[in-house]
Automatic annotation (TrEMBL):
It comes from the Bacteria. Pfam families: M20_dimer, Peptidase_M20. CDD domains: M20_Acy1. This is Amidohydrolase.
């Protein structure tokens, strides 16, 4: 089959599916309208599927005419609680927004499903289609795995994509790959620092949790600057501080929340350990007390070198080799595709697509984020080519 021509012939359908999904963005695990729409398209294609897997997840199965292995193709389909300001003709009006491209991911996977199903007599194995909820949180990959998404038939490889502009300077249509660490973990912490409230004019009568919090924040940052190698990426960000109710009163407590990012599991565990140790020592040394809640979220996303190499060889059949870019360093965003790749060999790639609004290119998770739809056919062709080549090998 001429995969590029088949993908090109589906471009209008993929754009329509994406725009339909863009109008009905839903958040989290419960995506009734989104999953219903995808199920209807699979029914039209006569692809058998299961619904409500790990929440609103949908799993389709394309069985080839010849026995062989099974590869999973994954797309997330949830949106964000952002009011859209793109003024596009198909913009959302329900208070949520597909501000990260998941509508395009789902539409591209539908396009790939159509091509693969129409040509299943040439497939040497099976294609499992995974439409996943809650990538933006609380995480839909692990619940789907817990419910057996990689079983019956057993999945032996997995492929996923992310569209948009996740790296600076990327051009439309470029394919960005990594042969190892690609994205960071997504951990969260919450500290409740307890002191003793008093009047601000008489601080000696209390224990100031605001001053303590300031010292905690300052000292914790030395983990990054002095306790891990400069060549090991790591981030500790304090994103929320809440405490106090009056300008001249020292409060009893301060609550501090933040995130930890690392691309190596050992570094991740070290950061979590030292964050707790340093915080407790600082607080107790200043006569306070502290409760720490540390949540290990999505793990680091680490691609498998061999399946990435295979993907690159397939991608060269779809795009010019100069448009396949090896990432020199990972990005510090998180992605729960990592759970799938931790289970079986897999790879995740970026497909660059940008659409300026009012002459400005806006980043992901922005109310004016937009995509160049002309790139979608490349996404379809890349998924189909990689899947068929993997099954052939």
């Amino acid at each position: 089959m001429n995969i590029q021509e088949l993908a090109k012939a589906l471009q209008e359908d993929v754009v329509k599916w994406r725009r339909d999904l863009h109008r009905i963005p839903e958040v989290g695990m419960d995506l009734p309208e989104t999953s219903k729409y995808i199920a209807e398209r699979l029914e039209e294609m006569r692809i058998p599927y299961k619904k409500n897997v790990g929440g609103s997840g949908i799993v389709g199965l394309i069985e080839g005419s010849q026995n062989g292995r099974t590869i999973a193709l994954r797309a997330d389909m949830d949106a964000l609680p952002i009011v859209e300001e793109t003024r596009l003709s198909f913009a959302s009006i329900n208070g949520n927004m597909h501000a990260c491209g998941h509508d395009a991911h789902a539409a591209i996977l539908l396009g790939a499903a159509k091509v693969l199903n129409d040509n299943k007599e040439s497939l040497k194995g099976n294609i499992k289609l995974i439409f996943q909820p809650a990538e933006e949180g609380p995480g839909g990959a692990k619940p789907m795995l817990d419910e057996g998404v990689f079983e019956n038939p057993k999945v032996e490889g997995v492929l996923g994509l992310h569209i948009g502009g996740l790296t600076e300077g990327s051009r439309d249509g470029e394919v960005l790959v990594s042969y190892g660490s690609m994205m960071a973990c997504l951990d969260r912490f919450k500290m409740t620092i307890k002191g003793k409230g008093c009047h601000g004019a008489y601080p000696e009568n209390g224990i100031d949790p605001i001053s303590i919090a300031a010292q905690v924040i300052s000292n914790v940052q030395t983990i990054i600057s002095r306790e891990i190698s400069p060549t090991d990426p790591g981030v500790v960000t304090f994103g929320m501080i809440n405490g106090g109710f009056q300008y001249n009163i020292i409060p009893d407590t301060v609550v501090v929340e933040g995130t930890v990012r690392a691309v190596d599991q050992k570094v991740r565990e070290f950061l979590a350990k030292r964050l707790e140790e340093i915080s407790k020592n600082v607080v107790e040394g200043m006569r306070g007390s502290i409760d720490i809640e540390y949540t290990f979220g999505y793990p680091p996303l680490v691609n498998h070198p061999e399946i990435t190499k295979q993907f690159v060889e397939s991608a060269k059949k779809i795009v010019d080799g100069k448009d396949i870019i090896e990432m020199k360093k990972p990005v510090m965003g998180g992605e729960d595709m990592a759970y799938f790749i931790n289970e079986v060999p897999g790879t995740f790639f970026f497909l660059s697509s940008h659409l300026p609004i009012d002459g400005v290119l806006y980043p992901h998770h922005n109310s004016k984020f937009a995509l160049n739809e002309a790139i979608f056919e490349k996404g379809v062709a890349l998924m189909v080519q990689a899947a068929t080549d993997w099954l052939d090998k």
